[in-house]
Structures are given as C-alpha cells and as structure tokens.
Specification:
Elements (H helix, E strand, L loop, with lengths): L1 E2 L2 E3 L15 E3 L8 E6 L15 E3 L1 E5 L15 E2 L2 E5 L18 E4 L8 H13 L6 E3 L15
C-alpha cells in the first residue's frame, strides 16, 4: 500500500499498469481535500485499467480534469473508502459501472463537467449499490461547487 495519499497527475501517462499490485492507499492526515487517491489531469488515459487490485482508500477518491477518460474501468476492486468519491470535469466519461463494487463510502458525488455521462448511468450505479446493500449514497450535484471551491466544507 501507499501511505500519505497518492496523486496521479500527468497528461503524458497512457497506462496505470505499473500500479497493478497496489492494494490500498492510506490518505494524508493533512491537505485539501482529505487526500486519499487523486487522479487528475491524466489527459491520455481512456480507462483506469491497472488499478484492479486497489480495494481500500483511507480518505477521499477524486477523479477530475481527465480529458480522455471514458470509463472508470480498473476500479472494479475498490470496495471501501473512508471518504467520498468525487467525480468532476471528465468530459469524455460515459461509464461508471466499475464503482458498483463499493460496499462502504461517505458517498459518490458527480459534479459538473462530466459532459458525456448520462443520468441513466448515475441512476444505474445508485441502483446497483442499493441492491448490494452498500452503504454508499450516490448524488448527482451537477451544479454545485466543486470540492476545490473556497468555502466548501469538507465535512
């Protein structure tokens, strides 16, 4: 596992396969937001393939500003996070079913900028999590402030 949080941010990386053995991320006890796993500005990634072994994140999972990301494929093994899963500004994102393995989290929140993501995909994820008895509410706050906006509470 990784202690102190993990931020993946490079527009040139085309594969996360070097992370195939990563099973957990222990977030930092400092920083903004509660950094667990951040995938941002990875403009050459189409999926998150390579993160299949990741099952646990202490802190938030934030997936943002990934211009070519079409699917969260690769996160099928993620079963718990102590924080929320924030998904915002991924204009090519069309599928989120990879998150249906979540059993415990503070919530999955979809913000603005996921221009290709249909509401039915969000609804299907919500239904899938509910049918598995997961403690992980899904919300699509398309017009709310993003987690990085000044004045937004982290609670």
């Amino acid at each position: 596992g990784v202690d102190g949080g993990l931020t993946l941010a490079s527009p040139l990386v085309t594969s996360l396969s070097p992370l195939a053995s990563l099973t957990s991320v222990q977030g930092a006890s400092y920083g903004w937001p509660d950094a667990g796993l951040q995938v941002q500005d990875m403009d050459s990634l189409i999926t998150l393939d390579g993160l299949q072994s990741l099952s646990s994140v202490i802190g938030d999972v934030t997936i943002e500003w990934n211009d070519s990301l079409e699917s969260l494929e690769g996160l099928e093994g993620l079963s718990e996070t102590s924080g929320k899963v924030h998904i915002l500004n991924n204009p090519a994102l069309m599928g989120v079913e990879a998150l249906s393995g979540l059993q415990s989290c503070s919530g999955v929140v979809f913000y603005e900028g996921n221009l290709s993501l249909p509401q039915c995909a969000v609804d299907a994820l919500s239904d899938a999590l509910a049918s598995e008895g997961a403690s992980c509410p899904v919300s699509a706050d398309w017009l709310v402030d993003t987690p990085h906006s000044p004045g937004m509470s982290t609670n």
